[in-house]
Amino acid sequence: MSGHSHWASIKHKKGKADAARGKVFSRIGKQITIAARNGGDPSMNSVLRAAIDAAREANMPQDNITRAIKKGTGELPGIVLEQVTYEGYGPGGIAFVVEVITDNKNRAASEVKHIFSKFGGNLASPGSAMRFFKKKGVVMIPIFKDIDKKEKFSEEELMELTINSGAEDFRIEDEECALITRMEDLNKVKGALKNENVQISSAKIEMLPESPLPVNDEKSAEKILQLVETLEDHDDVQDVYANFDIPDAIMEKLG
Fold this sequence. Notes:
This protein is of the alpha+beta class. It is 45% helix and 23% strand.
């Protein structure tokens, strides 16, 4: 899964840049509003609690969080948001799952379809791409033990953290490590890591590909990455998942 891991790292770096532009606040705000429709008390609404945790990890102001919750519970007026998942295929038959929150489902579908077409892909019927993924909790932690970045966690230490926290597996992604958990164990693993004073960069439910497809052609790889990035840049898109595996050598060439 080296290609997928490299892209995960690129996504995380891009997320930090988006945060500087306020784009992450907009996306997380939508997630909070949608989640709050099922109750504005995070102690009774695990989805809302996870969204609020993500907001705090992104340093989203408390006023923004409160407003987003009140929009979801109906205490404040606001546009009506819908949560939609689109499935499709990119170059080389790579499966895509695109999660969207929008105030105009028809517009979003048209624009997502256009993006796929632009890069030689197409939208697909529900379930056709989703079957290649599994929902998992993903907790990102720095690979370095201390703020000075002088000493990395060893693989043995990461394995010990994985076992002790109740996670299922781990993977190293440049300067971070992803702990993979069962979806229902995400908060338990987060709590166990915090008890060990391990810094958490992010924690969320993701769609992980079960059997990533190898992409060994540089032009195809470039087109796939451009498709992912263009989808992610769309204002309504929350997350993009794809089941590609691009070799390290090609990823390094593409930067």
